Amino acid sequence: MPLTKNQILRLSIESLSSDGNGVAHWEGQAIFVPNTAPGDEAEVRIVKPMKGYAFGRLEKLLVPGPGRIEPDCPAAGPCGGCGLRHMAYAAECQAKTQFVRDAFARLGRLDVPVLPVIGAPGHERYRNKVQLPVGRDADGHLVTGFYAGRSHRIVACADCKLQPVWMNELAARACALLEQAGASVYEEEPHTGLVRHLYMRQGWHSGQRLLCFVINGHSLPREQEICRTLQGEFGLTTVLINENTARTNVVLGPRTRTVLGPGYLEDTLAGVSLRMGVHEFYQVNTPAAEVLYARARAYAALQPEDFLLDLYCGMGTIGLSMLPDCRRLLGVEIVPQAVEGAQATAARLGLPKGRAEFRCQDAGAAAARLAAEGARPDVIVVDPPRKGCDTATLEAIRQMSPRTVVMVSCNAATAARDTRWLTENGYRAVEVQPVDLFPRTRHVECIVALQKEQP
């Protein structure tokens, strides 16, 4: 029987889909239900029937599943961030392991061992960076929060449990000071108003703190007063203004100026000393990222005379963390600020000329050029964006023929696709290790170890 809109069914939630929705079946049709957990018995309202499947809404929880808990944040459902906060962390880890296994078995059609996920060292207050949109509440007061799922509607959140307490407190204080100064709030549709986002970053090991106002203009009202007040009250290392006057949903604009402090903060990641402002990519969960990098380093199994190529290298942290194991490192990244940061880090480390080099290029174009030049790296590490590697990158890897490829990915589906391409072109997928860098959310990282097939 076809499902109809507003039809209510009693369903048993069998599993989670890769986007965190509960999955149930009714007469052979899959029904996807947000905010449910495996084992839940629930009344579900059909909100969007499709051909062969449907989307539902939880109307009434009848019997909770064994891994369900009561969410401890009132914004968890509507804000679109903590998609798994209604599950115990052990159950979340089981679900994320299954996400990755399903991707490699069903999408990649690969018979490769996928190990149980390595859980994060801590699953609360772990974020070292946050970008909070600024809006107004029903009473007209300035607030920060998060965008509701598939929208740019701000859901106010006074205490996000994924970020350190000081970030929540600073956001509230900054809103009060901006409101007292008469600052307007940016409105996306008419492209009017001033304050767009508050951007905060913390050096996890150093404790240094950065604040950046993202504005649709050139300055804040009472700028020095507001920045000095916040610096004094919250021990900020540096305060910045980023000017984003474009009609865009990209958070940062191209120009950033320093109001107070050095314009950057310092920290270490996997033993690598770093400086960063706002444009550099940096894993948001430092302790879990160090677990991830350690496993990637073990998979690389570098030898003292090896040449390591790090594609999509960001600030160079993965490659630099592996540099003690090899002779030479070449990193490639398309973001200029990240490359400048990687080069500066290498200079501060006092590395001999030629030991570590970083190039600002598209990964695919750089890899193709290196292959054409006859470069022969022994190990290649790739850490692409969610869309995965492009064909040019994969083809260049095939041509350069390293003995080992280590793929770090935030999207198991594209990792499975790219792994399959490599297995069809001379490589064997040895093992996949999921690592949870994003507790309470639907996202999970994974590392794939591939070895060159011997003729």
Whole-angstrom Rg: 24 Å
Which geometry do the CA atoms define? globular
**Low-confidence parts lasting 5 or more residues at pLDDT below 50?**
none
Biggest sheet overview? 7 strands, mixed
Number of domains: 3
CATH domain class of the largest domain = Alpha Beta
Give the spatial strand order of the biggest sheet.
Answer: 9-8-7-10-11-12-13
Task: Name the CATH homologous superfamily of the largest domain.
Answer: Vaccinia Virus protein VP39
Compute the average pLDDT: 95
Per DSSP E runs of 2 or more residues, the count of β-strands stands at: 22
Structural class call reads alpha/beta
Helix content: 10-25%
Tell me which CATH architecture of the largest domain applies here: 3-Layer(aba) Sandwich
Q: Give the termini separation.
A: 55 Å
Q: In percent, how much strand structure appears in the residues?
A: 25-35%
CATH third-tier fold name of the largest domain: Rossmann fold
Q: Count of helical segments?
A: 9
Task: Explain what you see.
With 455 residues, this protein is α/β, with parallel strands linked by helices. It folds into 3 domains: 1-67, Nucleic acid-binding proteins (OB fold (Dihydrolipoamide Acetyltransferase, E2P)); 94-121 and 285-452, Rossmann fold (3-Layer(aba) Sandwich), CATH 3.40.50; 129-266, OB fold (Dihydrolipoamide Acetyltransferase, E2P). It contains 9 helices and 22 strands. The chain has helices at residues 89-107, 165-180, 223-234, 286-300, 317-322, 336-348, 363-372, 391-400, 412-423, and strands at residues 8-12, 15-16, 22-26, 29-33, 41-49, 53-63, 129-136, 142-147, 154-156, 195-202, 209-215, 238-243, 255-260, 265-269, 272-276, 307-311, 328-333, 356-360, 379-382, 404-409, 427-435, 445-452. Strands 9-8-7-10-11-12-13 form a 7-stranded mixed β-sheet. A 7-stranded mixed β-sheet has the order 18-17-16-19-20-22-21, with helices on both faces. Strands 1-5-6-4-3-2 form a 6-stranded mixed β-sheet, with no helix packed on it. α1 (89-107) runs parallel beside α9 (412-423) and α7 (363-372) packs parallel to α8 (391-400). The longest helix is centred in the first third of the chain and has 19 residues, at 89-107. The protein is globular, with a radius of gyration of 24 Å. One of its GO terms (biological process) is rRNA base methylation.
